[in-house]
């Protein structure tokens, strides 16, 4: 056995020596996760954790799901790679299922290897279809780490450059409980955001390509507008012929419980023109993609292929994973168990002034932390809770402006007992962190 095999500090030093400084690691003592099963993972030192983050919402069904592992192994034993230049049965089969589930009429599907690449593709399609590089994006948004995706990111923590091939205009509406319209009722909030959008369109050169929006903002801290906001936006956009791109990288496949896609909470005026997906569909295998109206999807006037998008192995994983998700009604489970988890966390939060808000739906829950006694976001509190939860055997994520929001997104097969256990562990971590902050 390698002498470094159980030495996280040694592995961290090697990480630092060979990987870029901006590739951040969670925790004071970073974890090396070596295996997982169901909703649990183990580190190199043999500690077991309840996983409430799923590798950034990516282990969607369960760790080491036998159906997915088997499908990957069998496909790998036949052929690993062919590219999009050859017919691929698994790719066609998964595309058929996604097209049918998408809610988009006459849909076409293009597979990529990540959500970032899916964003890139959607931007390429929208800007070439509309002959415009003007994009409307939401404040507090995040759509990936590529050059074009960073150019539509409304979140300072994730914007390393202002250079961009796009002209981006930022719209109000992604954050309900902060900002200039926070005090309004839901109906008035939507009306104010629609007025802002209408006014913003007067500032453009005309012919804006698209609005891109996450129905629930992921990196932004699991914030969302009232239901129906994007439907109201769509009315304004449709008058101008502007496309609506729904970024479903984190909200797709039933995670929000109430809907299979996040956009369905805003569906009164029809489906989006383009929808991007990734993360959960592969349960850890790298799959991303775009599904959209044929007219837009077919609009590229030059050659385009994907070497790794739609690879036989990832498609086999996606098919097995999606099949499992639908057969076991994991959307229903996310709704039921997620509802219980939100209730438990709200009960805990009621007695703590380090928690400003518990929000979300299904198994996509954000806990926004503040300096006790203030309304000021506290990244310090989030870091303390992250560490304290880990010590107690629970893994959670963080996000939001400045990183003051805990992000809770367990695999969608989470049981009631695991939800209650996780809520207890988190409650304990929150109470401990509040005491620490109080003592200064």
Q: What is the residue-mean pLDDT, rounded to a whole number?
A: 96
Structural classification: alpha/beta
* Number of helices, counting only DSSP H or I runs of 4 residues or more: 13
Uncertain ranges = none
Number of strands: 15
Q: State which percent range the strand residues make up.
A: 15-25%
Q: C-alpha Rg, in Å?
A: 22 Å
**Shape call:** globular
What sequence of helices (H) and strands (E) makes up the elements?
HEEEHHHEHEHEHEHEEEHHHEEHEEEH
Characteristic key phrases:
alpha/beta, four-stranded mixed beta sheet, 15 strands, 38% helix, globular
Please characterize this protein's 3D structure.
By secondary structure, this protein is α/β, with parallel strands linked by helices. The protein is 38% helix and 16% strand. It contains 13 helices and 15 strands. It has helices at 8-18, 54-57, 66-78, 89-102, 115-130, 147-150, 186-201, 229-240, 294-297, 312-327, 330-350, 379-391, 416-439; strands at 33-37, 40-43, 48-51, 107-112, 134-138, 167-171, 210-213, 243-247, 274-277, 288-293, 355-361, 364-369, 394-395, 397-399, 405-408. The strands form 3 sheets. The protein has a 7-stranded mixed β-sheet with strand order 4-10-9-8-7-5-6, with helices on both faces. Helix 3 runs antiparallel to helix 10 and helix 11 runs parallel beside helix 13. The chain is globular. The termini are far apart.
């Amino acid at each position: 056995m390698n002498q470094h095999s159980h030495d996280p500090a040694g592995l961290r030093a090697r990480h630092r020596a060979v990987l870029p400084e901006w590739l951040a690691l969670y925790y004071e003592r970073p974890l090396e996760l070596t295996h997982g099963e169901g909703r649990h993972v183990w580190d190199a030192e043999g500690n077991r954790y309840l996983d409430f983050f799923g590798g950034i919402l990516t282990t969607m069904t369960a760790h080491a799901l036998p159906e997915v592992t088997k499908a990957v192994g069998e496909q790998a034993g036949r052929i690993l790679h062919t590219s999009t230049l050859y017919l691929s049965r698994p790719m066609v089969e998964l595309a058929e299922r996604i097209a049918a589930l998408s809610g988009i009429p006459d849909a076409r599907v293009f597979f990529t290897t990540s959500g970032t690449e899916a964003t890139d593709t959607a931007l390429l399609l929208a800007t070439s279809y509309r002959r415009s590089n003007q994009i409307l994006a939401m404040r507090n948004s995040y759509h990936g780490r590529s050059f074009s995706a960073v150019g539509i990111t409304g979140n300072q923590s994730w914007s390393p450059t202002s250079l961009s091939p796009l002209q981006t205009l930022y719209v109000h509406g992604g954050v309900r409980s902060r900002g200039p319209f926070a005090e309004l009722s839901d109906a008035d909030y939507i009306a104010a955001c629609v007025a802002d959008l209408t006014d913003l369109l007067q500032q453009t050169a005309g012919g804006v390509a698209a609005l891109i929006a996450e129905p629930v903002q992921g990196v932004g801290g699991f914030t969302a507008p009232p239901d129906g906001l994007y439907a109201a936006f769509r009315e304004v956009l449709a008058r101008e012929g502007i496309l609506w791109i729904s970024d479903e990288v984190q909200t797709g496949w039933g995670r929000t419980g109430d809907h299979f896609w996040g956009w369905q909470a805003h569906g009164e005026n029809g489906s989006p023109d383009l929808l991007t997906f990734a993360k959960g569909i592969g349960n850890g295998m790298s799959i991303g993609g775009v599904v959209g109206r044929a007219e837009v999807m077919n609009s590229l006037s030059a050659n385009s292929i994907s070497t790794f998008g739609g690879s036989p192995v990832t498609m086999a994983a996606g098919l097995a994973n999606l099949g499992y998700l639908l057969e076991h009604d994991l959307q229903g489970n996310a709704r039921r168990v997620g509802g219980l988890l939100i209730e438990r966390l709200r009960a805990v939060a009621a007695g703590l002034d380090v928690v400003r808000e518990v929000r979300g739906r299904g198994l996509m829950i954000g806990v926004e932390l503040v300096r006790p006694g203030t309304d000021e976001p506290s990244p310090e509190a989030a870091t303390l809770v992250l560490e304290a939860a880990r010590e107690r055997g629970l893994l959670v994520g963080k996000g939001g402006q400045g990183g003051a929001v805990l992000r809770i997104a367990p695999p969608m097969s989470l049981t009631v007992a695991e939800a209650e256990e996780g809520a207890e562990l988190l409650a304990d971590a929150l109470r401990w962190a509040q005491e620490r902050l109080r003592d200064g």
